[in-house]
Amino acid sequence: MTPQSPVNIQGPRSDDRALWDVAFAVYGYPALLIAHRLKVFPLLADGARTLTDICEMLSLQRRPAEAILTAATALGFLSLQNGRYSLTARSEDYLLEKSPSYFGFFWDMMIDNAQVFSYASLEQAVLTNSPQVYGGGDIYKSHEEQAELARRFTRGMHSISMTLAAAWPSTLKLDNHHMMLDIGGGSGAHSIGAALRLPDLQALVLDLGPICEVAQEFIARHDLQDRIRTHVADMWNDPFPEADLHFYSNIYHDWPAERDQFLTEKSFKSLQTGGRIIIHDVLYNDEKTGPFAPAAYSMLMMGWTEGTSYSGLELSDMLKAAGFDDIQAYPAFGHYSIVTGIKP
């Protein structure tokens, strides 16, 4: 028999690491949530510890303990030197509850609603174009009806907001504005951040009753009761009180475009000449080819709300259509950007 010629198999044009990264992320990132729930980070706040120490103190066997500690180290939340694990600056800043930048309450909210980011839940959200949190009900209706649920959600959002709130007020000149209306302001984090940065600014946090109660707690914690007040109202149906600066953070990505256009036009009508609107959110690039963060945020919204991430261009067009002028979009902090415009 004549031997057959070898068959040339066309190789891929890149290696397969990006494919593995998808699979690894599904398993790797939950290690951080597990470490957080097990209180690994507070355990190390008093000093470095060995793997054996951590196993004994958390009643864990070596194999699972080493898996979560190695993941936390690889992702920059722990360091390992001379056989001892210690906190990094990142974990000290964001994963110790005493820190003003504590992120853990948001992670708690993720863990408490873990079914929402399961494959089955996200697939159902994509196939039905409907949120799956709270059994597929309306998240905001649920919050309105269940006061304690609203309070927990608000504290979770506060956890991610204070760091952002300390940053964005310094990205643009706001000295000529005197009253900020923090629409859907939740815990009041952004009003607090703005007031601390701008000593002449007053602020009004507009939200539902149970949420305003939480905001009052945080406002009092910063001793800002004389400069920040709460205003119980429904942003869709109640008039906006007088202000020369309207601020929306993490609001527009919760709703379909037609409802966001409604809010934009409502702000335009409410503001006087020279009044400013600021939209603070995680934004796509103008081509909507990335970055990854807003794409992932849109998937998060698939599980939680009716909304999606926008590009800066899309929000700018929304402001322009409402009548705003001098429209600008630029980075604020981390994954967040702002889009702002002035009423002519």
What is the compact description of this entry?
The chain is of the alpha/beta class and 344 residues long. It has 15 helices and 10 strands. Helix 10 packs parallel to helix 11 (189-197) and helix 10 (147-167) crosses helix 12 (209-221).
Structural class: alpha/beta
- Morphology call: globular
The rounded Rg comes to 23 Å
Could you name the CATH homologous superfamily of the largest domain?
Answer: Vaccinia Virus protein VP39
How many structural domains can be distinguished in the coordinates?
2
Low confidence ranges: none
Rounded mean pLDDT is 92
List the strand order in the largest sheet: 6-5-4-7-8-10-9
Commentary on this structure:
With 344 residues, this protein is α/β, with parallel strands linked by helices. It has 15 helices and 10 strands. The longest helix is centred in the first third of the chain and has 21 residues, at 17-37. The strands form 2 sheets. It has a 7-stranded mixed sheet, sandwiched between helices. The chain has a 3-stranded antiparallel sheet with strand order 1-3-2. Helix content is 47%, strand content 16%. The N and C termini lie far apart (87 Å). The model has no long low-confidence stretch (mean pLDDT 92). The chain is globular and about 85 Å long. The chain folds into 2 domains: 17-99, Arc Repressor Mutant, subunit A; 106-342, Rossmann fold (3-Layer(aba) Sandwich), CATH 3.40.50.
